[in-house]
Amino acid sequence: MRLRSEIGCIYATMAEHSYTQVEGWLERCHAVLMRDLSLPDFGFFRDTQKLKILVAGVPLADVGRGASWYIKDWTNDRVYDGLRNDLERSNPGIVCAGRPNILGSVHAMKEARLTKCSIRFMVEKNSAVDVVLRSSRVCLRGGNRVARLWVDHRPAHVCHNCMQLGHISTLCAFPPRCRLCRGNHKTLNHLCQARNCDGKQGESCEHTVRLCLLCEGSGHFTGHPSCPAVKMTPEVIPPPLRGSPMAGDAGARSGIADRSRNRENVR
To answer: Are residues 130 and 64 in the same domain?
Structure first.
């Protein structure tokens, strides 16, 4: 575990117990974590729904310093803790739930003589964030900055059992399919049927035809990163264009978040 100067979170998932049951164990958990991990004093809080927002046009230089900035200013925890505090203080109701991240290489920005950057924040999902996303504006570093919802797009999961999209093999209830010969067996059990073939079980050989079950294209096996079907299926569906990008109950809460100065305001 790597501890930051002001913020750090430990997330506990309770698969077999409710929060009410675990609540009685928190004092013992607190003592064990303090002893074994040498953590500073901390408290337990129920978690909240979170989302990421991107703030663009953030000055790389501190207020009052103009366009002059140094790489060392963006390679320490102090500047990121300051951004977190600035966002909460300048926008009442917003609660940061993690350490901010700068997008891109600081060294490349310095070489290109850039004066502005983009910062990604993890925040708790509440009405204050909804207002920010509706207006696409947020106050940060002494100015009104452009803000929008950050949506992670990753290649879709391909099940290694049935070769379909959207789930993993440990949760698959479909019959197996082989990615090498498209037969009704697991890929690990694949064995070339050609006479005198030296191919090993579960591996492709010179007789294997590269054909994808998803895009029905040739030249690659099912699940290859270059497959159009994998690229065109994002893991997270983009938000609607109209209205607020936030869906569902903005005040919904579910387990462990950091102790923020704005938490009481949100409640």
So the answer is: yes
- Count of beta carbons in the 10 Å neighbourhood of residue 198: 8
Q: Answer yes or no: do 56 and 68 share one domain.
A: yes
Largest CA distance in the chain: 78
Q: How many domains does the chain have?
A: 2
pTM over 0.85: no
The answer to whether 263 touches 15, Cβ cutoff 8 Å, is no
Specify whether the backbone of 131 is left (phi greater than 0), alpha (psi in -120 to 50) or beta: alpha
Output the CA angle 196-201-202, nearest 5 degrees.
135
Domain residue limits at 70 = 50-154+237-241+250-266
Question: At CA 139, angle to CA 116 and CA 89, rounded to 5?
Answer: 120
pLDDT in tens, 48-63: 788 899 999 999 987 6
Residue 84 lies in a domain: yes
**Rounded CA Rg of the chain:** 25
**Beta sheet of 137-140, edge-to-edge order:** 101-102, 116-124, 50-59, 143-150, 137-140
Domain contains 12:
no
* Average pLDDT in the chain: 75
